């Protein structure tokens, strides 16, 4: 059994996809905002939740919760991961990002794709390093941008692929740890 922590502050749909694949191997959810929808999903699945919203020693405190964790999966976690967490989990932190990196890093990548007039976008699972969405790519999936797409319809199409490739990428990384 692996021990996986998920960190996020969004709707929690990727947590749900990972939970469907890994079940009780997901032992911890770390929130960086208390009110997130991910909280309700974590509670429904019976996963332990900790909330760490900020402060000077944020990364030390989060690291303190990760004793015995094999892999950390960011899913809608909107802060750049810093030391000492980054070094302690080098090569063991994954992130899902809603674009074909290196295109459209940062926030609301689906809005960036629409505003750029892109004909396709997608999602990327990558290792986390000190940069913004710059780490080594593990898996990507493409989706078309369709005529009439709004940011919401494009994000929904991207999320279908996120939920498909994130469990695959996690499985691949666990086999290497
Ligand atoms: C996902 O689309 C994820 O790719 C994105 O936040 C959403 C979280 O959704 N992450 C980023 O934009 C990170 N830069 P979820 O809470 O339903 O999994």
Describe this protein with a few key phrases.
177 residues, alpha/beta, Rossmann fold, 7-stranded mixed sheet, binds glycinamide ribonucleotide
How would you characterize the overall build of this protein?
This protein is an alpha/beta fold and 177 residues long. It has six helices and seven strands. It has one domain (4-174): Rossmann fold, CATH 3.40.50.170. It has helices at 13-22, 37-45, 58-65, 85-88, 109-115, 151-174, and strands at residues 4-8, 26-31, 48-51, 71-74, 93-97, 120-127, 137-144. It has a seven-stranded mixed beta sheet with strand order 3-2-1-4-5-6-7. Helix 1 (13-22) runs parallel beside helix 2 and helix 5 packs across helix 6 (151-174). It is globular. The two termini are 12 Å apart. The chain binds glycinamide ribonucleotide. Glycinamide ribonucleotide is lined by residues 8, 10-14, 38, 75-76, 96-98, 109, 159, 162. Residues 8, 10-14, 38, 75-76, 96-98, 109, 159, 162 line the site of glycinamide ribonucleotide.
Q: What is the end-to-end distance?
A: 12 Å
The helix/strand class is alpha/beta
- CATH class identity: Alpha Beta
What are the distinct ligands in this entry? glycinamide ribonucleotide
Give start-end ranges of low-pLDDT stretches: none
Oligomer: single chain
The tally of helices reads 6
How many domains? The number is 1
Fold-level CATH name: Rossmann fold
Molecular shape: globular
- Give the strand line-up of the largest sheet: 3-2-1-4-5-6-7
Helix content: 25-40%
CATH superfamily: Formyl transferase, N-terminal domain
Query: What is the alpha-carbon Rg in Å?
Result: 16 Å
What string gives the helices and strands in order?
EHEHEHEHEHEEH
Number of distinct beta strands:
7
Mean pLDDT: 96
* Biggest sheet overview: 7 strands, mixed
CATH architecture: 3-Layer(aba) Sandwich
């Amino acid at each position: 059994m692996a021990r996986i922590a998920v960190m996020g502050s969004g709707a929690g749909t990727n947590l749900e996809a990972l939970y469907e694949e890994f079940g009780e191997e997901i032992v911890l959810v770390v929130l960086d905002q208390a009110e997130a929808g991910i909280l309700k999903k974590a509670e429904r699945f019976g996963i332990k939740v900790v909330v760490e919203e900020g402060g000077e020693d944020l990364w030390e405190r989060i690291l303190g919760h990760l004793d015995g964790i094999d892999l950390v999966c960011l899913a809608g976690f909107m802060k750049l991961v810093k030391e000492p967490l980054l070094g302690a989990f080098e090569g063991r932190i994954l992130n899902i990002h809603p674009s074909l990196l290196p295109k459209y890093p940062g926030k609301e990548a689906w809005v960036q794709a629409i505003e750029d007039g892109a004909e396709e976008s997608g999602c990327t699972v990558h290792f986390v390093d000190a940069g913004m969405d710059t780490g080594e790519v593990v898996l990507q999936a493409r989706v078309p941008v369709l005529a009439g797409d709004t940011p919401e319809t494009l994000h929904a199409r991207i999320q279908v692929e996120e939920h498909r490739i994130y469990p695959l990428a996690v499985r691949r990384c666990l086999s290497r740890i």
